[in-house]
Amino acid sequence: MTDIITLIHSEAAQLRDFMADLDTTAWSRPSACAGWTVGDVFAHVTQSADTWRENILRARAGDATAPPGQRALRPGERGSEVTAQRAIALHQEMGAEKLLQAFAQGYERLQQVLLTLQPEDWEKPCFHRRGVLPTRDYVGIRLQELTIHGWDIRSAFDDTATLSAKPLPVLVQQAQRWLANTFRPAPHLATPVRYRFDVFGPATVRQDVVVSQDGFRLEPVAEADADVTFRCPAGDYILFVYGRLNLEAAVRTGRLEVEGNREQATRFNTLFHGV
User: Fold this and answer.
1) 3.30.1050.10, 1.10.10.920, 1.10.340.30, 3.20.20.70: which CATH number matches 173-271?
2) Which residues of the chain are modeled with pLDDT < 70?
């Protein structure tokens, strides 16, 4: 967990430095998050710092209930629309200079709280809108958010942008939770589809995702042939699973190799769709 705290601090510092170098026009450029500008995404991760700090402090005190102004999402409910509205409003209200200051202050406050946590605190239940989880997993999601949203911003200026390498082992471990939260029933599937992931360094994944009409399961790579095999580096695996990489574009540029049924490959991101 010490490593994760260090990575959060590093990712936050890198993102702030990147945003500080942009002019006002660049803050208005569309990001990889549909309907969000670069500044909107930055406003979102700025807001999250204080929310995360508050929830961690409550967890440390033994309280895993929803704080005032927050609530658990219902099964299947999307939270992105409200999140986007809040981020867009904050960007418009504060502007670049004040957001940069708020971001730096928010992550400094979060860092100070993280550094005070004791070993026993990491297992304490912590509120999250998609279900209570151990504080260690909650903190890991903050690293995930910073890393992926940092890419959402940087990719607006560089088509070849990749995820930061050091957080990838943590993000790969969290991919299973993302799949569970984003799965959509697939009544059109006459038979189960076996998707195989062959992911290499700096974090490796050899796993089958078997999808049926009303659910999915994760299995070790089976002797049976997969309907679709995806082969890529760890960073592009995360971007693809999280719906950030377009399949055809990723194959064309060599970021992703696909073997097997191309129609089923194209369907993967409709089966697991953002939250």
Assistant:
1) 3.30.1050.10
2) 75-79, 274-275
pLDDT single digits (tens) 104-113: 999 999 999 9
Buried b (16+ CB within 10 A) or exposed e, 50-63: ebbbbbbebbbeee
**CATH annotation of 2-161:** 1.20.120.450
What local confidence, expressed as pLDDT, does residue 167 receive? Answer: 96
